[in-house]
Structures are given as structure tokens and as C-alpha cells.
Amino acid sequence: MRIAILDDYLEAVGSLRAFGRLAGHEAVVFTDREQDRDRLAERLAPFEALVLTRERTRIDAALLDRLPALRVISQTGVIPHIDVPACTERGVAVCTVRTGDSTTTAELTWGLVLASMRYIPQELEALRAGRWQTRLGRGLRGLTLGILGYGGIGAIVAGFGRAFGMHVLAWGREGSLARARADGVEVAASQRDLFERSDVVSVHLRMLPETSGIVTAADLAAMKPDALFVNTSRAALVEPGALLAALRAGRPGYAAVDVYDREPVDDRSDPLLSMDNVVCSPHVGYVTRDRFEIIYGTAFDQVLAFANGSPLNVVNPDALRTVR
Known about the structure:
Order of helices and strands: EEHEHEHEHHEHEHEHEHEHEEH
CATH superfamily of the largest domain: NAD(P)-binding Rossmann-like Domain
CATH topology of the largest domain: Rossmann fold
Shape: globular
Number of strands: 12
């Protein structure tokens, strides 16, 4: 098969052990993000299979109509960027499965918490400029950690908080709260109560239509002036413009983010990057070599299974009955 692998910003795919599984097929890795739809359609027209990297490229009906050779799209995780009904109508199979990336994202979350509370990036910058000890950091023991969304990642972050001597508070949907109670974690009276009481609030929710903008300006305004807001999930979970306005107003006083309204951020245009009370990372919660081996390895296996006539993890099986 002719296979296109999209949006490999890190130029990492070719170095993965998993890439060797595609031997015998014509696999092309694209390391840039083509945003012009005409050029993207021209680029992808020869390919029978697309391997996507998360939600970086939108696949809609207009694009599909210009990809006559396409038979299968493969990735892992959620697929809000793929028009699945349009794929089904055109006989394009969509293969995806959740591979579970709780640990790596939780580790990055805790790294951002520590970096923010102890001003590690700011102190490094000062040290490089010849200044020694410029700020008083804040310890975590005895503070309250609020977890919004007590799923796989949220539970691990809660465990880190407990290990550092923090009191953990949780809020989310009923299933999430049941897991928190089973782990002996206190459940907040409401989402607003979580934001009001916590010294650190960390968001761990899936991006769904019903969770879009779930963190409101009023929630953020209810936080303490010295509190920290952490988001390693999705930027759209926060009401548009609310975080920037809240930080400028001083409630919360600090933020740490790994996700942005527009990604990649490659022109310094996001105002959060220029704020001294914000620690930023470039959506690297899942970006580790071991995770990439799993993510791409699974996506490649789905393409190979399709090529061999035994498709795996097809979310639109009706597409298999349509011949392009």
C-alpha cells in the first residue's frame, strides 16, 4: 500500500522500531503541517492509507472527495477531526483504539506543577543572566490539590499530590466521583467549590461537545490569588479567552499549560507565552519515545491488518461494504 504518515513535527517516526513494520509498503512521512486544503489534497491524492497524528489534520467530506485512492485512515485515540459518516459514504475505513497514555501525561502535569510552584523556568533564566535566587517559591505539603476529572490521568496526579503531602479534592461526572470515593479522595460539593478551595487545580477531562468550555470565567475568578491552574488536557475545555483574562485580573495568580487554542504555536502569537506567571510546554504530555512506539505501532498494525484483509478497530464497519 501507499501510506502517508502526517504531521511528524519531531521528525521522529522514521527512528521508531515500529516504523520497520511497514517494510514492503511505500510509506512517506510528512514532517510539516500543510494547512492549505488544495495543496493538502494534491499531496495526499496518491495514497491509499493515511496515518494521522492525533487531531492535527482535519479530514472532512470536501477533502475526501479529492482523495480517490484512499481506503483507510488509521490512528489512536479520539477522532473529532474526522468526518466518520463522510468516510463511511465513500468507503473509507476509519481505524482507531485508545492505547492509554495516563502515565506520561500525568508525569508532565506534575513536572509543570513543580516548575510553577518553585519558579524553575524563571530561576533558570535569571541564573543565565547572572542573578542568584530571585524569587521565593512555595512548598506543596499541606496545600489542597483539586482534580477536575478523576479518570486514569487524574487518579495518577492525585497519587502524586498525596505523595507530596497534599490534600486531594475531586470533581467530575458521577462515575469519576465514584472512583475518587473508592480511592479515599474527598469529593467537592460542586465544581465551584473545587476551584474556590484548591491551591492547585489540574484539569483531566476528555474533549467532548458537553465538556467544551466547562471551565468558566467564574470558576477561574473564584480561585485564590496565589493559586495555580494547570491544563494538560485540551485548551477548549476552558471558556474562550477566560484564562488570559483571569490571569490578568490576578485570580488565579498562576497557570501552567501544555495545550493551546491553535496548535502548533510557532510564531509566539499566543499571549500566554509572554506572561511571567505562566509556565508553558508545547503539548508534550504524550511525547515520549515509549509512547510513540505504542501509538504509531498500533496505527501501523491497523493499516497492515487492513491490507491483509483482516481490519482491526474499525469504527465504521459499513465502509467495508462500499467499494471505491
